[in-house]
Each structure stands twice: as C-alpha cells, then as structure tokens.
Write a structure and sequence with these properties.
The complex is a heterodimer of chains A (409) and B (432).
Chain A (H helix, E strand, L loop, with lengths): L18 E3 L2 E3 L3 E3 L8 H10 L3 E7 L13 E6 L2 E8 L8 H14 L4 E6 L4 H14 L3 E5 L19 H14 L5 E4 L7 H11 L3 E4 L3 E3 L21 E4 L4 H12 L6 E4 L5 H9 L2 E6 L1 H6 L4 H15 L26 E5 L9 H9 L4 E2 L7 E2 L10 H4 L5 E5 L2
Helix pairs in contact in A: 2-3, 3-4, 4-5, 7-9
Chain B lengths: L18 H8 L9 H5 L6 H10 L2 H11 L3 H7 L6 H4 L11 H11 L16 E5 L3 H12 L3 E6 L5 H5 L8 H11 L4 E4 L4 H10 L2 E4 L4 E3 L12 E3 H10 L9 E5 L3 H12 L4 E6 L10 H9 L3 E4 L1 E9 L1 E16 L5 E5 L5 E4 L2 E4 L3 E3 L28 E3 L2 H4 L4 H22 L1
Parallel strand pairs in B: 1-2, 1-4, 2-3, 4-16, 6-14, 7-8, 7-14, 8-9
Antiparallel strand pairs in B: 5-15, 10-11, 11-12, 11-13
Helix pairs in contact in B: 1-3, 3-4, 3-7, 4-7, 5-7, 5-10, 8-16, 12-13, 13-14
The chains are: A alpha/beta (409), B alpha/beta (432).
C-alpha cells in the first residue's frame, strides 16, 4: 500500500468549498489545466478520486491534424536550489484522436457526474472549430476551452503567431466557437504575450464568449548550455522556444488577471504559475473564479490537492468567508496607478532581538540602497533614520525576516 | 572487539560530499557580509565567497579561493577541527545548524585535484628569504613570501610536511591529501634537505635578507620516573611516526597505557587500538573537563573503546626488559589554578594502585628540539620569544608556529607563517 492509498482524513476537516460558476457546480476551485496530466482517462480518474474538482482535458483538434511531437520536450529553470522554479515545454496538443477525447468526456461524465469536465480545442478553419465544439458538447463536456495561445504556433492562417496575438482574429474566432456552442459555456485561453491584454480581453467579451482563461505559458528560451551553446531542451544540436510555466510566471499571471478583471466583466478562469492554496487565493483575489493547475501536479503529483483543499478551508475559516467566491476581486480595489499612490513616509526598523548578525542588509543598503544602515561592533546593524528613505529593500534580504517598515509621523 | 586490518572509519573525519550534497549544503549559506566565519578562520579564507562559487557551479574558482588563502588546503579540509574557528561562528547556526564549511572546503579542493594551481605572484623583489622548517608554519610562510615576489629557500630535514607528515595518523589525514598540497607548494621555493647546526644557521642568516624559523617542537617531554627506559615505553612522536611508516615493527602488546590529556594522546590511543591492542587506557592527572582536546576526538576515542583513568599519575613503570605494569597514584583537583586557569592536581596519599600493561606511550607535551638554536631568546616555557610582528631577539630573524607558541593546530601554524611573511615583507622592503 502506498501512502497515497492511506490518505483518509489526514488533511484534517475540510469545509464545504463548493460554489457555482457559469451555471456549473464546482466542488472546489481547483481544476487540472489542459496538459499531460489530463491526457489519459486513468490519470483523470485518479485525480477526481483524490479530490480535484475538475479537469480541462488536454487540447484536441480535428482528425488529420498532424501532432509531430519532438523529444525531449521538458526543461527546467532551477534557481538557487529550487528545482523547476520554472518549467519549459515544447509539447503540442494531445496525440490522441479526437474520437478518444470524445469518449473520455463521455466516460468521465458518466463515472463522475459531479465533476467538472471541460474539453480544450484548437483548430484553424471555422468549420473545424465548430465541429469540435459540437462533438464535445454532445459528448457531455461542461465547458469548451479554446486554446488561442499555444506557444508552439497555431494551426491557422498565420503560422508561428498565436491567434490571441491578433485582436481581430481573436474576436472572429471566438464568435465562431460561441455560435456553435448551444448549451454550454465557452472560455477563450489567451496569452500574456501581447501589447495590450485589455484589447484582447475586450474582443473576447465582445464576441459573446462566456469566459477567459488567463493565461497560457510564456514563450521563453529555457537556457543555453554554455559549453555546447545548444539551448534547452537540446534535440540533436537544436532547440526552440518553450512555454514557460511554474512559480516563475506567477507574478506575470497575477498582473494579467488583474488587468483583465479591471476592464471586462466576464468570468476569468485563472491559470499559470499557481503552486499552493495561497497562490490560488491570490489569483482569485485579483479576479479569477477558479484556478487551474498543471506544473505543480507534474512536479509533485495529484496528492497536492490535499493541501490545496485543507489550506483554503483553514484560510476561509480564519477570514470568515463562506464561499470561495468571497475572495474574488478582493485585491482589485487596492490596485491603482502610480500617481494615485499615497505618499507616506516609512523607514526600516530592525528587531535587534531576532537579528543573527549576517549583515546582508548592510551590504544591500550600502550598494543597492541609500547607505542608511550602519555596522556596529555587535554585528547587529542599525538604521539611520535620517538617511533611510524607506525604499523597502532590506526587509526582503533579511533571512530572519526581522526588518519591518514603520510609518514616520 | 577491534581486530587488526579492519579499521573502522574515523568519526572525527569530515564526510566527503559529492557535488549534489555540496550544492544542497552551499545553498544553506547566508552569504554574510564581512562574514564571522572568515574572521574566525586563522588564514581568513573567503568562506561565503567560495561557497557562492560552489553554488554557481564554479568549483574551480572555489578551490582557487581556498587554496590561495590556505597553503595546506587539502590537509586542512581533513584535519581542521570543526568545533573551533569557522563553524561555531557561522550565523546560520543561529537559525538551525552551522553550514558544514569544512566539508565544502574539502569538496572544492578535492574536486579540482587534477588541475594545475596557478597563483599570481607580485613582481620579483630581488630579495632572498630563508625559511627554516618545512612544517605548516614554514610552508605557509614560504608560500606567502613567494606570492609577495621574494625568492625563497626552504631548509628541512627530509621532505616537507612537518607534523601532518610525521605524526597525524593516516585515518585522520590520508597521505595523498598532504602530498598533493606539498607537491603544489614545491613550486614556490627551493628545497634544501638536511639537518642544520648553529654554524650553518648563521651562514643562512648571513646570506638572506630575512629568516623565518619554524622548527616545530619534536622533543617529547619525559615522565622522569623509574622504568622509563624499558623497551616498550614509547615517546608519542616516534610512536606515531613509526605507526605511520612501519606499523608492523611496533610491538605494543595487548594492554597499552597512554599517559597524557591532549589531542596527541587521543591520536596515540586511537592508533594503539587500530594496531590491535585489546585494552587501551588513557591516564590523565586531571579530570575530563580539564583535557585540552576537541570533544569530537574524545568521542571518537570512546567509540573505539579507549578506557579513561582520570585523576591518576604514573609513579613507576614496572618490568624487566619489557613493561609489565605501571604503579599509579590517584590525584585530586586542588583549589589553586595554574597559568592555563585549570586547577592544579595534587596527589592523594595512600591511593597507589597497579595497572598491568605491555607498553606505555608517553604523550605529556613537547619541547623545541633544535639544540643548536642558542642565539634566540626563549620564553619561560622554552619556546622562541617573538614580538607581535614575529620578530625574534635576533634582527632579521622571525619565528612562528609551534616552536614560538607551543602546540597548536595546523591551520594556526599556517596562519602564523602567513602573517609572519607579511611582517617580514614589511621589514625587508623598509630596509630597501
């Protein structure tokens, strides 16, 4: 027996986390994003049985679409001992025939009627988009997600460019999809790689699509082997740009979601870099209505759902929230443009009782701040209130978190 | 029971980290500014600097940083005591546990073992300096003087290496590590092999711009009790030296008594156990708390099954030809303290007892051996008297290491040599 099979109530009590979204009842806000973990029915079965509320199946397309995979497809951006701080992939859509994806939807909905099963699609021509929507809707999918943003280029008129990089093409294509979906909602998955994300989001809203999935991986070059000069991942002396995911892109996604939420009203399905219940809360606080996970699961497995559910449940208890929807948008009123920010004088204060004398704050302030921290014989540094402007660098370099910013009257 | 040929690993020795383990450990370093570990290191290795290099994958840079500061880099990676110097100073200890600096140091230098070591030397000064003694202090000094641009002659009886070569047991210091260090250092001086006398020393002093004397100790203090001339009574230095070079010629029997309460006596006790002695008893005139030892080494001796008889002194070694036993007397700690601040032991009358033994190893301290060094003023304890600049009573003659300050660690002697080199450099350049 594996420890996974021993899980019972080991996460402690988890409160009811269910709520409605786009007319669908979700058990909790945690959904598997379209990717390797949702390409196989047994994997999704296991995830559902472990507590995931839903899954967006790996993207499919029409019969005859070539899926010419190249291996290896994964690469890592490791930082300071943190493995997979960022993950890169050059994966493509599902290699399975659309018939199989259709049957997966049908089977999953039969076996797990309470779970959210979405299908992700990608196509070029209008009739292909529409036939995919019809087939998967008829199979029982709860939602259609449309990938307008695969970083490996699109099947379509303009190869190498993502559909969602064109505002006009986004609106037109989204309209086709929405037309075809008679009973179920449609979400358009967009890329952060645009000049103005608001223009794209507005185009989606104008098309009549029901939701936005924000956002896809970030096109990236994952690193270069400095001895062979072949970038990662290496494939026989060549490489290409990857889609970057994982913790490294979380701040980019947060900004993307926030910017969309501040400007359009249709729901946002958050995805891209969330690695914990806390990240999920952050995503929801800037406007996401649920949070999709992929890289976290690829790294640590479906078991992470235990902490996601328990962490959110405990957090909601602490905050007195009754539904995850209570979190949605809570951070938005606090986001302003720079010239609207209050001008308040702050300065750093070191808690001497907790300082361990590493003096990292001293050197950071000397060489990257305002030279406002002085050394002492005791190695416990002291802030000069005259020179400290309150830039806020030193609290972030302190390994003991014993520097705080305090207001100056 | 410990048998010959089945030598257990020494628990005081550093673990040998692989690159993965080193990376994980290196990531624990906080990269302190003006780091306490570097201040605590006698040769002031830039510890956060070399650890950051391990972290970035620049192990070659890390090894260079260590070796350019520490002439016996591999040796110190093995024998530097982890409980003094850098590790207790580590700020990380205040969070959880100190960074294992010694292991990272050893990883860095050992990883780069096959690579040539180059160090930038200052432009030639045209000055000739003599270093008398090829132990850690002499080698540390010669290396530093060469880096400062001087031409160095090193005088030593036999191959350089000093105490680490002669008497640090191989289970604490694999010979290859020392030989790798001395092999590198050989490029920085001209070695002259042979014993010296007073006349030769004067001639050397006359033909060089300055002289550094680092002869070490080398003469075991005798117990001064009857029976000390019996065949199986061993002064500790020749004992350890023979145990390293020709262990099969040592006949110590199965019951060994080691007299003394320092790290050298612990080395002797551990060596005796490894040579196959069934019972090894360490006799010390004061208590455990008064021992001048690293606790890790004491723990290791205990692990090896060494017995301790504290508060006891030998009065007479009994036997005909070979040792048969030792008559001892119990001691108590008196209220008076000596120079070291430790209580003076006093004999307990009528407390004599007999310990059966096949051999006795005497490890109660050492004195400066070189009898010909008559021109230099000595301290009360017989060490060479120097001022804060390592200057002896004879102008132009400097001294450091054990012969000037008594028994110390390898790294302390290296640091003496290194600091003395800078003092000598100042002296030579001032004279023009």
């Amino acid at each position: 027996m594996t420890s996974e099979q021993h899980r019972g109530s080991e996460t402690g009590p988890v409160r009811d986390l269910s709520y409605g979204l786009l007319g669908i009842q979700l058990e909790n806000p945690f959904i598997l994003a379209a990717g390797p973990s949702t390409d196989d029915i047994d994997m999704v079965r296991r995830a559902f049985s472990m507590g995931w509320a839903g899954a967006v199946l790996k993207t499919t397309s029409v019969e005859g679409t070539s899926v010419d995979l190249a291996y290896p497809m994964m690469s890592a951006f490791n930082h300071d001992g943190k493995l997979l701080f960022g993950m890169g992939n050059i994966d493509l859509i599902s290699a399975h025939h659309v018939d199989r994806v259709e049957s997966t939807v049908r089977t999953l909905k039969k076996e797990f009627p309470g779970k959210f099963v979405a299908a992700s699609i990608m196509a070029g021509k209008k009739e292909d988009w529409q036939s995919l929507v019809e087939r998967l809707e008829n199979a029982g999918a709860d939602l259609i997600e449309c990938s307008f943003s695969c970083p490996q280029g699109n099947i379509g008129e303009d190869p190498g460019k993502m559909l969602a990089q064109s505002v006009a093409a986004t609106e037109l294509t989204a309209r086709w999809v929405k037309e075809a979906a008679r009973r179920i909602p449609v979400s358009i998955k967009i890329t952060p790689h645009v000049t103005d994300i608001v223009d794209v989001a507005r185009a989606v809203q104008k098309s009549g699509a029901d939701a936005l999935t924000a956002s896809n991986s970030v096109q990236a070059l994952m690193g270069v082997d400095v001895y062979t000069f072949v970038p990662n991942p290496p494939l026989g002396g060549r490489s290409t740009y990857s889609g970057l995911t994982g913790p490294a892109i979380k701040p980019l996604t947060l900004r993307t979601i926030a910017e969309i939420a501040r400007n359009v009203s249709i729901p946002i399905l958050g995805t891209g870099g969330a690695s914990s219940w806390r990240d999920a809360v952050e995503f929801m606080s800037v406007g996401a209505r649920c949070v999709q996970f992929c890289t976290l699961v690829m790294h640590h497995g479906f078991r992470v759902i235990d902490d996601l559910r328990s962490g959110l449940s405990n957090y909601m208890d602490d905050m007195g929230f009754s539904s995850p929807l209570d979190i949605v948008g809570k951070a938005l009123p606090h986001i302003a443009v720079h010239d609207q920010l209050p001008r308040r004088r702050v300065r750093s204060v070191i808690d001497e009782s907790r300082c361990i004398g590493c003096e990292v704050c001293y050197v950071a302030c000397r060489d990257g701040g305002h030279g406002a921290i002085d050394r002492r014989e005791s190695r416990i540094p002291v802030v000069d209130p005259e020179r400290c402007v309150g830039c806020g660098l030193c609290p972030h370099v302190c390994p003991e978190a014993c520097i705080a910013l305090e207001g100056v009257d | 029971m410990l048998r010959e040929g089945r030598t257990p690993p020494d628990k005081t020795a550093p673990d040998v980290f692989d690159s993965r383990r080193s990376l994980v450990e290196a990531e624990r370093c906080l990269y302190c500014f003006d780091a306490p570990c570097t201040s605590a290191c006698p040769v002031h290795i830039d510890i956060p600097g070399f650890i950051a290099m391990i972290r970035s994958g620049n192990v070659r840079g890390a090894a260079w940083l260590v070796r350019s500061a520490n002439a016996l880099a591999d040796t110190c990676g093995r024998v530097c005591p982890s409980e003094v110097y850098c590790q207790p100073a580590c700020a990380r200890a205040k969070q959880d546990a100190p960074v294992r600096i010694r292991e990272l140091h050893l990883f860095a230098t050992r990883s780069e073992r096959r690579r040539e070591f180059h160090v930038e030397t200052a432009s030639r000064t045209g000055k000739n300096v003599a270093v008398v003694g090829g132990g850690p202090a002499g080698l540390g000094c010669a290396f530093e003087l060469a880096k400062l641009g001087h031409t160095v002659d090193l005088y030593n009886d036999g191959p350089p290496g000093g105490v680490p070569l002669k008497s640090i047991p191989p289970f604490r210091l694999p010979e290859e590590d020392l030989l790798h260090d001395t092999g590198i250092l050989g490029r920085f001086f001209t070695a002259h092999d042979g014993t010296l006398d007073g006349l030769e020393f004067s001639s050397i002093a006359g033909s060089h711009d300055a002289v550094f004397v680092a002869l070490g100790l080398g003469r075991d203090r005798p117990l001064g009790i009857p029976g000390e001339d019996l065949e199986s009574v061993f002064p500790v230095l020749p004992f350890l030296e023979t145990a390293k070079k020709r262990p099969h010629t040592l006949r110590i029997g199965s019951r060994v008594i080691v007299v003394g309460g320092g790290n050298v006596s612990l080395d002797a006790a551990a060596t005796a156990r490894r040579l196959g002695a069934a019972e090894v008893t360490l006799l010390y005139r004061r208590g455990e708390r008064q021992m001048l030892v690293w606790s890790a080494e004491l723990g290791e001796a205990r692990r090896l099954g060494v017995e301790f008889r504290f508060l006891a002194v030998p009065l007479e070694i009994l036997g005909t030809g070979r040792v048969e036993g030792v008559r001892c007397r119990s001691m108590r700690l008196s209220a008076d303290s000596d120079d070291s601040g430790r209580p003076v032991p006093a004999e307990v009358p009528g407390s004599d007892f007999l310990l059966p033994a096949d051999s006795v190893i005497v490890a109660i301290g050492q004195d400066v051996r070189a009898g010909w060094l008559t021109g230099l003023t000595r301290t009360k304890k017989g060490y060479i008297r120097v001022d804060g600049q390592f200057q002896t009573s004879m102008p132009g003659v400097f001294a450091g290491g054990d012969s000037a300050s008594g028994e110390g660690t390898v790294v302390r002697s290296l640091a003496d040599g290194k600091e003395a080199a800078h003092a000598m450099h100042g002296y030579i350049m001032r004279r023009g």
